[in-house]
Amino acid sequence: MDHSGHGTSMDLPPFTLGRGLEFSPDPFFLTGCFLALLLYGWGVLRLRRRGDSWGAGRTVFFVAGVLTVALAMCTGLNDYGMVMFSVHMVQHMIISMVSPILLLLGAPVTLALRALPVAGRGRKGPRELLLALLHSRYMKVVTHPVFTIPMFIASLYGLYFTPLFDFLMESRPGHIAMMVHFLAVGLVFFWPIMGVDPGPHRPGYVMRMLELFAGMPFHAFFGIALMMASAPMVEAYDSPPASLGIDALADQSAAGGIAWAFSEIPSVLVLIALVYQWYRSDQRQARRKDRAADRDGDKELEAYNAYLASLHSRSGG
Question: Cα–Cα distance between 5 and 28 in angstroms, integer?
């Protein structure tokens, strides 16, 4: 199916799940997904060859994350998403809320730091540049909740309820830029909350939950606003092709329902990940305390034995 103008070919048949899941690759996202899998696989192989371990679960999460991006952008969903608001909203929710969570659980930054070679003294290679970026002031700003939460909210209200959305939908590069933006905002929002990679902003687990719940209600309100509207609110979808056999207002209401429902699903996934990480963190802390107690206990025992020995030597003297 051909992307032309602000949409696809205008004679799309009525949407069905089968048609939506047909392979219809976008060259930009297909290339990006392939490179992501290739680089991640290279990193895992490099670790394995030198005898280091890398959790299979992390690999599964990352591959699943890449595949969800491909599902949203390299199937018929991408074609129908250009002319149906409801299908576009499915794409948006997947690429901004499901894909980032799975990709972050794959710990790609940690893998890169472990797999990339260390540059020679006085030189800066990819690993050194990545470390510099992680410790930069820029990263401290973009991962702070004062930035991430408003950005997460603005990506909904500031995009769909202004002429910016229609402008981006008029061209293929604009549409690609919008989808890349959705993915980037999702990654930046969820990284400080439940990402396992090192980052400049890493609050306690209770604060992470509060950050999550600070953003999610706005997602639900956005969906409700679309469902309750009495007229189409987005120009790009106010006149769907007759071949689809849909009503613009009903399709917009469906889009709102999808946005509302998706605000709940990622919340549950992230909460499960957070509770598990919290549990693992407590377990590690308990083991560290046990080891410290064992070490201190040995010192106390040695000191006590030395004291007994000194008493024995005195009595013998």
Answer: 17
Q: What's the full length of the chain, in residues?
A: 317
Strands 3-4 and 7-8: antiparallel
Residue 95 parent element (H or E): none
Which residues are 23's β-sheet partners? 75
Q: Enter the tokens of residue 119.
A: 């540059």
Closest C-alpha to 194, from 207, 184, 180, 179: 207
pTM score of the predicted model: 0.80
Cβ–Cβ < 8 Å for 44, 111: yes
3-state helix, strand, coil in the chain (%, to 5): 75, 0, 25
Spell out the per-residue pLDDT of the chain, length 317, in tens.
444 444 444 578 999 999 999 999 999 999 999 999 999 999 999 999 988 889 899 999 999 999 999 999 999 999 999 999 999 999 999 999 899 999 999 999 999 999 988 877 777 888 888 888 888 888 888 888 888 888 888 888 888 988 999 999 988 899 999 999 999 999 988 888 877 787 776 767 777 777 777 777 787 888 888 999 888 888 889 889 999 989 999 999 999 999 888 777 777 777 777 777 777 766 666 566 555 555 555 565 566 566 666 766 666 55
CA distance linking residue 246 with residue 84, whole number of Å: 9
Question: Does an H or E element contain 172, and which?
Answer: helix 172-194
